[in-house]
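[job 0417] fold request received: Methionine aminopeptidase
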Amino acid sequence: MPSISHPITYKTDADLKKMEEGGKKLAEVKEEVRNIVRDGTNAQQIEDLATKLVDKAGGEPSFKMVPGYSWTTCVNVNSGLVHGIPKETIIFKKDDLVSVDLGMYYKGFHTDTSFSEVIGNDPELSDFLRVGEKALENAIKEAVCGNRIFDISAAIEKTIVEANFRPIKALVGHGVGKNLHEEPEIPCFRQWKKEATPEILPGMTLAIEVMYAKGSGDIEISDDGWTISTRDGKISALFEETVAVTKERTKILTA
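[job 0417] inference complete; emitting structure tokens
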């Protein structure tokens, strides 16, 4: 996806109400899509269902608004990390690790969410995914007024590294709102000093994204110009939720 060029925006209560409504609808789409991630399903079927459900929800696919990208979803398997084109030839099988990224534009605002699932009951893969889920949970706890973006990044990195995995350093989470990708960038590691990162303030809406791998965490882009995978072929995963920050609390919009 393109680099972030839109500044931080602070949403009004009315804006947040629209994003909350859109996020709830996207969460419902996500769960229906998750239900068909199984042995024998192909990535095009994920795409077709997501497209149908987003339309039924009264939204538009966010990712189709990205110049050059023509799909509702990004679907990746095993070493695939992000931006995978959902092709019919990608057929899921037992012990695959499947990651799906979804975004929806609703009433003038985007929300963005991702999940990873293992097909079958491989305990090692299940443990790998639990680390990512915990990293996202810990990161969201830090997304509160008075903290800084550094605190979110530090929570992700600490959780991932303590499990002997590696955060992806070349990709970031981001702000989200009227534009799919807004400032601030939210790295999965402590890239800058704390005071150099933006303070978290009321009205911020953030797409917090945990991206990590079993290997080095280095990435490469495939010949299709979109699909990003681990360079060493080791498995990777991502988990993402859109959250809204208010004075009272931080609310997950896409769960």
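[job 0417] notes: Residues 13-252 form a domain with the Creatine Amidinohydrolase fold (CATH 3.90.230.10). The first strand starts at residue 60 and ends at 61.
[job 0417] exit 0
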